[in-house]
Amino acid sequence: MNESFKIKFIQNVICRMNFTLHLLNQKTFMKTEVEIFFQNPIDKMD
To answer: Could you report the average pLDDT of every consecutive run of 10 residues in the chain (46 residues)?
Structure first.
């Protein structure tokens, strides 16, 4: 396998992993935001 192809392939894999992690993080973030909001809605009104 040629080197530049290998590097591109690895970058692609890393990029996909990062994207997946990013989406997972956003989901958990949204979830915690909503939970926090429902735990103390009065505090959030200010």
So the answer is: 90 93 85 79 60
